[in-house]
Amino acid sequence: MSASILDGKFLSQKIRASISADVLDWVEKGNRTPKLQVILVGENPASETYVGAKTKACKDVGIESDTLILPDTVSEYELKGVISEFNKDQNTDGILIQLPIPDHIRKLSIIEAIDHRKDVDGFHPMNIGRLTVGQPSFRPCTPAGILEMLNYYSIPTKGKHAVVVGASNIVGSPVAVMLSRENNSGKATTTICHKFTKDLTKHTIDADLLIVATGQPGLITGQMVKEGVVVIDVGITRVADHTTERGYRLAGDCDFDTVAEKASWITPVPGGVGPMTVAMLMKNTLLAAKNSIYTD
Predict the structure, then answer these.
(1) Contact 174, 139 (CB under 8 A)
(2) Are 227 and 210 in contact (CB under 8 A)?
(3) Cα 29 vs. chain centroid, distance in angstroms?
(4) Which residue, 71, 187, 195, 284, is most buried by CB atoms nearer than 10 A?
(5) 3-class secondary-structure state, position 3
(6) How far apart are CA 151 and CA 24, in angstroms?
(7) Which of the residues are catalytic?
(8) DSSP readout, 86-132?
């Protein structure tokens, strides 16, 4: 068996075209152009690349964006003060803190400082809590993108065994919740594995749907999956490769060649989950502008 490709780049372009039309319609009806405020702390080349991709996506769909760059010496108190000002700014619809942030700043404290109605990343405890109990919320962008992809390619989840490797608050935990929900895009039996899981293969080889988000290149090999599995590889890591002009290549958490031999569907790295994450950020920002998630 040779796996079919879950083309996130193609699907994200379709979604962004739809969002662009929605933004245009929103503005033509006399509403203000949606605005995303990005806050970048310190100098991190990878973060700067991600922010660049997000702001370019904003421009492409007609969303206004602004990036505030703060020094890595900024205090937690100062950063919260900046966030507070954007919370109060009626022209700012979405606030995004580009992670990671310096170690001296508590990440969860900063996420909580964002008004949950402007939390377009979907990380605020209010949004995660509402997601968990099936209430309207901003869905975390990567898990939301994964479910959009499964839906578009008509990959069933009902009654399937979904195994999630990686239990982060950003991807692993929320995607497991979303897959297990009693709704049209869930109804799966879900297992969460992490770095303390004993005999990982015992779990992965039983998966009908395998989602891997650990940041460990090549963690999952073909011997660890069964024939016909659907594989979503969230990982993307720079691996040294002196045969390339850049001196590195981007690798996922799966050994693509051996896993693709047995999978029915698989996401490429890059070009799989990453573009979908950015598309969902655009969708959340438009929803924030419309105030269509919360009515309180």
Answers:
(1) yes
(2) no
(3) 30
(4) 284
(5) coil
(6) 26
(7) 54, 98, 121
(8) HHH-TT--EEEEPSP--TTS-HHHHHHHS-GGG-TTS-SHHHHHHHH
Q: Give the whole-angstrom CA distance, residue 184 versus residue 175.
A: 14
CA dihedral 283, 101, 194, 229 (to 10 degrees): 30
Residue 75's Cα: distance from chain center in Å? Answer: 27
pLDDT tens per residue across all 296 residues of the chain: 689 999 999 999 999 999 999 999 999 999 999 999 999 999 988 899 899 999 999 999 999 999 999 999 999 999 999 999 999 999 999 999 999 999 999 999 999 999 999 999 999 999 999 999 989 999 999 999 999 999 999 999 999 999 999 999 999 999 999 999 877 778 999 999 998 999 999 999 999 999 999 999 999 999 999 999 999 999 999 888 888 888 888 899 999 999 999 999 999 999 999 999 999 999 999 999 998 654 44
**Nearest one of 88, 81, 47, 87 to 67, comparing CA atoms:** 47
Query: Do the Cβ atoms of 230 and 262 come closer than 8 Å?
Result: no
**What domains can you pick out in the chain, each with its CATH number?**
29-116 (3.40.50.10860), 141-274 (3.40.50.720)
Copy the structure tokens of residue 294: 């919360």
The H or E element spanning position 68 is strand 64-70
Nearest Cα to Cα of residue 233 among 265, 189, 186, 278: 265
